[in-house]
Amino acid sequence: MSVVRDVDPNEVPDLPALASVPLDDGRRWSPRVGQKPTHQPMHQSRLRFRTAREIAEATPERPDWTVEGLAVAGGITELDGKAKLAGKSTCLGFMAAAILDRKPFLGRTTKQGPIVWLTEENDPAFRQMLERCGLTDRDDLYVLRYVDTIGTDWPAVMQMTRDKAREVSAIAMVIDTLPRFAGLSGDDENSSGAALAAMDHVLFAAGDGLAVIVSRHDRRAGGEVGESGRGSTAFTGAVDIVLHISRLGGEGRDKIRQLDGIGRFEGIPDRLVIELGDSGYVVRGSVIDLKTAEAKAQLLAALPTERGDAIGLPKLWAEEGPLHGLDIHPNTFRLAAKQLEAAQILEKVVISAKEHRWYVSNAPAGTGHSGPKPAEASRRSSRHFWFGLS
Known about the structure:
Number of domains: 2
CATH superfamily of the largest domain: P-loop containing nucleotide triphosphate hydrolases
Number of helices: 13
Structural class: alpha/beta
CATH class of the largest domain: Alpha Beta
Strand order of the largest sheet: 7-6-8-9-5-10-11-12-13
Number of strands: 15
Shape: elongated
Order of helices and strands: EEHEEEHEHEHEHHHEHEEEEHHHEEHH
CATH architecture of the largest domain: 3-Layer(aba) Sandwich
Distance between the termini: 96 Å
């Protein structure tokens, strides 16, 4: 029978030294058996504690906005959207053009300075974006293609990008898209550990005082702002501002986008409806503003122009009516009719307390009004009201 008893460590004979084995809590085992682990502080010289007063005195009282409400110096903005559909790169291009020329972007002030841009696009596609955004002659936009980084690991890419930013006194950095440059795909993109490791190097760039803007593709199922990005939510958790750009469904809205935002600062827009024009995106208000403008155009195309032919609004969206099936609520049509009446464009004929009929008494030029027609005809005139009466 074997006997088990406690052994005094002093009774154990000397053994050859063992390799030092690291522990997760910062200690290291002694090279001799029987000795307790000892604490050896690691990277002590790199850890710097500051008081709340020191932080307050070293940081501006208000955010140092590079683009007001959208990108901040020393912070990270994430822009998410569906690949090839939402228009992330185009949105970033017009934002960059505004920063380079210190012009407003979406009605918001900007700060002027050079930009370093990492793009996954090849030259033909990227040049189209540059041309669309008026950037083909810029010498203060410094671009690194993904294809030119193949074979260089992500930490080294970011270190060289930060060095370039310092060399040219850049104030902003764009990474389009982050997972591609960080070499994350498949399971790696879904790993919170891999995502956080990739974000560490982005945080270093923000620590240099740059406004860093990264983009990510939406997951297949999409989702709300802050939840739509493909891969781990650790990406989103590490940034300061999250923006989501998406198409607004419906015919005639191919250049209209919805921009949602959340973040750690006041002044971030909750939701904007923006439209792409020749000179960039322009704010068009809210979704209600958009649908009210569309409802005005629909009413002008569907209502008669003679008082004697005036009809009630419910007949327009009834099953056989010209406005049946549109993605516009009847109350929005009623609101639009009242606004057009106030503008002396529509006139209401009171039949009884519960029955009102309407007709176009003073059609604006360019609306293409030709009496009651299917709703298809009025979609061509919605832009007039978007810029005018809405």
